[in-house]
Amino acid sequence: MAEPSVDLVTAGKRVLVVDDDAFFRESLAQNLADAGFQVETAADGEGALSQMSNTSNAADLVILDWKMPGLTGIEVLRRVRQGGVETPVIFLTTLTDQIYEESALASGAVDFVEKSRSFVILLKRIDLILCGARGQPTNGATTEEQLILGPLELNLKSHRALWDSREIPLTLSEFNIVHLMASRAGADVRYRDIYDLVRGEGFTAGVGPEGYRANVRTFIKRIRQKFRELDDRFDAIENYPGFGYRWRKS
Length: 250
Fold this sequence. Notes:
With 250 residues, the protein is an alpha/beta fold. The protein has two domains: 14-131, Response regulator (Rossmann fold), CATH 3.40.50; 141-247, Arc Repressor Mutant, subunit A (Orthogonal Bundle). The chain is 37% helix and 20% strand. The chain has helices at 22-34, 45-52, 73-82, 98-106, 119-131, 172-183, 191-199, 212-230; strands at 14-18, 38-42, 61-64, 89-93, 111-114, 141-142, 146-149, 152-155, 160-163, 166-168, 189-190, 237-240, 244-247. The strands form three sheets. The protein has a five-stranded parallel β-sheet, sandwiched between helices. A five-stranded antiparallel β-sheet has the order 6-7-8-9-10, with helices on one face. A three-stranded antiparallel β-sheet has the order 11-13-12. Helix 2 (45-52) runs parallel beside helix 3 (73-82), helix 4 (98-106) packs parallel to helix 8 (212-230) and helix 7 packs across helix 8. The chain is globular. It starts with 13 loop residues before the first strand and ends with a strand. 35% of the residues are buried. The model is unreliable at 133-140 (pLDDT under 50).
């Protein structure tokens, strides 16, 4: 069987692995290095905070364990988000209850993967996060670098979002969700389509066959909140109960 390989776009990207299990941490770091990443490691939350505060050598992505002595992974995430650090964070953990996943997403994580998943699955998650959405159909005014729809402006290269000329601090996953809906403005987008954009097609999580919907609702809630912090009249995201969401045409 061929060795898993990283996308050429993500080759050489810096990844920080944070886990108190030395064997697991070093094994994962080696696998990532073999896949073409530059890898740093930290054995605890304090070490992670120290490395993430080093802006001159910043990671492009952090893989974070939840259960660690001292600072837990969720505490690390909350501190860096409060400090304005928006580096994408994937939780890689043995915890499986949906409440942990929802808490991670609500605190600013972009993904939540069980340690029992294969390394190939983790690589796919990393590729989706670092490369973003590709090949989405577009109904708004767009170029290869920009989509403009009413007061919404998306820079597709820098992944910056503007609303009425003011920047919205979206995470990469949130940006990709907005891009998906805005590119199909006026059309309904299924929960599954939104979830697949973030997690990858066929990935399942949550309780029951429709459990993924709770994760999508968490993402949409955070996106709406960020827009409403700048515009309390923001109503561009409409819900289609039982099906999904749509970006309202201007």
